[in-house]
Amino acid sequence: MSSLRADLSIAVGGLNLETPVVIASGVWPYDPVLWSPERLEGVGALCTKAVSLQPREGNRGVRVWETPCGMLNSIGLQNSGVRGFLKEYLPIAGKSGIPFLVNLVMESEREVRENLSILRESGDATPAVELNISCPNADCDGMAWGISPESAARAAAIARSEWKGPLWVKLTPQAPDLPAVAKAVESEGADALVCGNTWLGMAMDLKRKQPVFRRVTAGLSGPAVFPLALRTVWQVCGAVSIPVVGCGGVSRWEDAAAMILAGASAVEVGSSLFADFDLPRKISEGLADYLADAEIPNLAGLVGLGRKEKEGGRPWAQD
Q1: For a tag on the chain, would you pick the N or C end, based on fewer CB atoms within 10 A?
Q2: ∠ Cα 75 25 264 (to 5°)
Q3: What are the catalytic residues?
Q4: Rounded Cα gap, residues 115 and 118, in angstroms
Q5: Are 235 and 319 in contact, with CB atoms under 8 Å apart?
Q6: Over the range 191-216, which residues count as b (16 or more CB within 10 Å of their CB) and which as e?
Q7: For residue range 216-261, what is the model confidence (pLDDT) as tens digits?
Q8: pTM summary value
Q9: Cα-Cα-Cα-Cα dihedral of 10, 16, 22, 27, to 10°?
Q10: 319 Cβ partners below 8 Å, 6+ apart?
């Protein structure tokens, strides 16, 4: 590991992270080589790919489309199902020596309860769950649960009743009143909030003269969404008292620092890893240098520092 000149460790939602850099769900391959400690330099935690009760083939047709400053994806939560995950992939994740979260698909109440019951069978081998109530690319689940405070609270309550370990909930930026959704999820016992997932967008195939994706819309990620994600982090951090993990467009250490100043305790890094697998180390080292230059001894001293009152004692706007 590189020698970091400041303490980047932080406790987030029941997990102790050596750095605030979390690899977002869906981007890190289940290659044992990539889950080895030497390939995870600078990583504080990882989220697995989505796990549903039954195997899913994912969406048909085009799944990924590059944009000038990011990418659109419509994967559709392809996965081997929870039993396939426990058999094939949990052993890989468990050997990394770094905390990880199982990204759990929010399906029907019955399916989620059964899924969590099966995960409980793994005991301490599953450290934490990231409940996904934000996926825009699947029918009848995912984002539909995260749009309103009532449905989001119901989803969190279901998961909390079945899972006693660390529970993070991944929110959707499509919610009309995201702070209200965040408060509702907090009230049902979530340990941390991930803010958030991709933004809905679309692309047109000029040769076929049709939408690129069969579902028409897809999830937009990448540097283009960072200012939007930073705004949602600011709003949610002003609404709740539990830790918030910023997510969306983080591609530099400066982005991570901005989210932490806005109140996030950690950040998730996603599509930018496709261009640079070494990004977690670069972000961690950049944050360490930034803290040292500012004479702030630890990361906790940076969290929310940008929320201090404006000159003259007037509070910053929360919306």
Answers
A1: C
A2: 130
A3: 135
A4: 5
A5: yes
A6: bbbbbbbbbbbebeeeeeeebbbebe
A7: 999 999 999 999 999 999 999 999 999 999 999 999 999 999 999 9
A8: 0.93
A9: 180
A10: 179, 235
Q: What is the pLDDT of residues 21-68, one digit of tens each?
A: 999 999 999 999 999 988 999 999 999 999 999 999 999 999 999 999
Helices (runs of H) and strands (runs of E) counted in the chain: 9, 16
Cα–Cα distance between 52 and 162 in angstroms, integer? 15
Q: Where are the alpha helices (DSSP H) in 188-278?
A: 226-237, 253-261
Query: Per the structure block, which two tokens stand in for 82?
Result: 């929870």
Helix, strand, coil percent values for the chain (each to nearest 5):
35, 20, 45
Q: What does the alpha-carbon distance between residue 271 and residue 235 come to, in Å, rounded to a whole number?
A: 23
User: Phi then psi for 231, rounded to 5 degrees?
Assistant: -65, -40
Helix, strand or coil for residue 296? coil
Q: What are 11's two structure tokens?
A: 């406790």
Tokens of 273: 């890893």
Residue 107 in tokens = 């399906």
Tell me the CA distances in angstroms from 115 to 47, 51, 144, 282, one per residue in order.
17, 9, 19, 36
Using an 8 Å Cβ cutoff, are 266 and 246 in contact? yes
Which ranges constitute the DSSP H helices of the chain?
81-84, 90-94, 109-120, 143-146, 149-162, 178-187, 226-237, 253-261, 279-293
List, for residues 151-210, the tens digit of each pLDDT value: 999 999 999 999 999 999 999 999 999 999 999 999 999 999 999 899 999 999 999 999
Q: 70 near 222, Cβ under 8 Å? A: yes
What tokens were used for 175?
């919610």
